[in-house]
């Protein structure tokens, strides 16, 4: 069975504007918003997990690849959405979680990981072998040939797992693959311009040629039927309080080089916080897979904070409030491992970043039981209140419009989810022809 994700490349070859948003997030409410919006438009969304989030040892989500698959599917089941309308993916799949181990050991772990991803039903896998491993030189950059050689090893492991699945199910869909690793720092940069350079067109082509040579040597020429994208840095990035906006002219040379290879597209990471028009320009320029992560949970946090401010206004007795913001802050302070190496400055600056940084390290704390309990209490309180429309307009102006016009419920969960939907609409606009002028939005 052909992978529908390949259809995007074929459509582009025929001059049809299209792309794929890649939603990299494991937050339950965010996934609900993604699935709700996909169902509304008959889409098949792509939801990804990283190798640090999810791996055979659990990752920081304490999930294996199969656990993640079941986690997403159970959310879909609850919403009445067919499982076959969802595509799962793996981001930075390779030896990243084991970079301190010798190369042989790290790669064996990586082989186990990618096999588990394929068997868990992941249909898009980013093979990333760009990082130095424990016994690699600390001073020399890994050569393209070493990166490609390790990538070939992982591709073979994926193919082995797929053949096992195919023997049980002749209709099993083949996963597609993304190669290349010239990406921004996961979660955003720490300083305004740290490491932010557009990929040199020659470097892109050298990477591609190295993979072609190594894959040919391994007898993997057939792999190019399933490799649809190369990760590059097109000049987009974000820090705590900064956003590097896409510059079409600056990326022109890189995108021109892509035109020589009509069977592939670029995948762009860290597209978070780009304006919708620039996301669309990226897709037009060949950066057709646009990945978003922290901006999704940032949008959810915005919605949760807005609801907590409304709660503070309308519930006069502090003991009856959820104190959601305070609970989240206390959890981040009591266990700082997910933010202390990322947020710098004096105490006030770090406090502001814990709540408002674009890198949104608060996402690592949202699923903690005490934070989840506060979030539930917040929703219960909001649902018990008669919120003045004028107050909703103050704190949630975009949701106010939809409530006013009857297209959105005043329920807390729906208001919070719609904060994420607003962002998802930017990505739909970027990848779909005539999305914003089709009459689906009534304002």
Give structural notes.
The structure is a single chain. By secondary structure, the protein is α/β, with parallel strands linked by helices. It has two domains: 4-292, Aldolase class I (TIM Barrel), CATH 3.20.20; 298-417, GI Alpha 1, domain 2-like, CATH 1.10.400. It has 15 helices and ten strands. Strands 1-2-3-4-5-6-9-10 form an eight-stranded parallel barrel, surrounded by five helices. Helix 8 (276-284) packs parallel to helix 15. The longest helix is centred in the middle third of the chain and has 25 residues, at 144-168.
Give the SSE map:
Blueprint: H1 7-13, E1 20-24, H2 28-41, E2 46-50, H3 65-79, E3 87-93, H4 103-119, E4 124-127, H5 144-168, E5 176-179, H6 201-217, E6 227-232, E7 237-238, E8 243-244, H7 252-258, E9 265-268, H8 276-284, E10 287-292, H9 294-314, H10 324-334, H11 347-356, H12 369-384, H13 389-395, H14 397-404, H15 412-431
Parallel strand pairs: 1-2, 1-10, 2-3, 3-4, 4-5, 5-6, 6-9, 9-10
Antiparallel strand pairs: 7-8
Helix pairs in contact: 2-3, 2-15, 4-5, 5-6, 6-7, 8-15, 9-12, 9-15, 10-12, 13-14
């Amino acid at each position: 069975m052909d992978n529908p994700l390949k259809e995007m490349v074929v459509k582009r070859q025929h001059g049809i504007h299209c792309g794929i948003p890649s939603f990299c997030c494991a937050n339950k409410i965010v996934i609900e918003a993604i699935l709700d919006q996909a169902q509304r438009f008959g889409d098949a969304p792509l939801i990804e997990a990283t190798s640090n989030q999810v791996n055979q040892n659990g990752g920081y989500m304490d999930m294996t690849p199969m656990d993640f698959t079941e986690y997403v599917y159970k959310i879909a089941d609850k919403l009445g959405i067919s499982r076959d309308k969802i595509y799962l993916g793996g981001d930075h799949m390779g030896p990243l979680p084991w970079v301190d181990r010798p190369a042989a050991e790290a790669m064996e772990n990586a082989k186990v990981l990618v096999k588990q991803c394929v068997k868990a039903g992941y249909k898009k896998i980013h093979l990333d072998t760009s990082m130095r491993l424990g016994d690699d030189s600390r001073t020399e950059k890994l050569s393209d040939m070493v990166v490609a050689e390790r990538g070939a090893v992982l591709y073979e492991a994926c193919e082995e797992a797929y053949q096992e699945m195919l023997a049980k199910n002749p209709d099993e869909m083949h996963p597609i693959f993304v190669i290349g690793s010239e990406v921004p720092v996961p979660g955003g940069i720490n300083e305004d311009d740290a490491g932010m350079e557009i990929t040199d067109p020659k470097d892109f082509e050298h990477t591609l040629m190295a993979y072609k040579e190594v894959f040919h040597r391994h007898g993997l020429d057939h792999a190019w039927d399933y490799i649809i994208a190369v990760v590059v840095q097109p000049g987009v990035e974000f820090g705590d309080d900064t956003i590097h906006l896409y510059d079409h002219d600056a990326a022109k040379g890189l995108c021109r080089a892509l035109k020589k290879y009509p069977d592939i597209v670029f995948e762009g990471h860290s597209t978070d916080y780009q304006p919708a028009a620039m996301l669309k320009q990226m897709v037009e320029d060949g950066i057709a897979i646009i990945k978003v992560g922290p901006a999704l949970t940032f949008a959810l946090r915005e919605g949760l904070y807005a609801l907590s401010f409304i709660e503070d206004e309308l519930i006069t007795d502090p003991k009856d409030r959820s104190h959601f913001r305070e609970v989240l802050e206390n959890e981040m302070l009591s266990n700082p491992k997910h933010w202390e190496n990322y947020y710098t400055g004096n105490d006030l600056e770090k406090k502001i970043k814990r709540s408002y940084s674009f890198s949104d390290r608060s996402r690592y704390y949202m699923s903690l039981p005490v934070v989840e309990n506060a979030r539930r209490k917040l929703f219960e309180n909001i649902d018990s209140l008669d919120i003045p429309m004028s107050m909703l307009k103050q704190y949630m102006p975009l949701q106010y419009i939809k409530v006013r016009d009857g297209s959105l419920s005043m329920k807390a969960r729906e208001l919070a989810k719609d904060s994420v939907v607003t962002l998802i609409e930017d990505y739909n606009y970027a990848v779909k022809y005539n999305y914003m002028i089709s009459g689906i939005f009534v304002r």
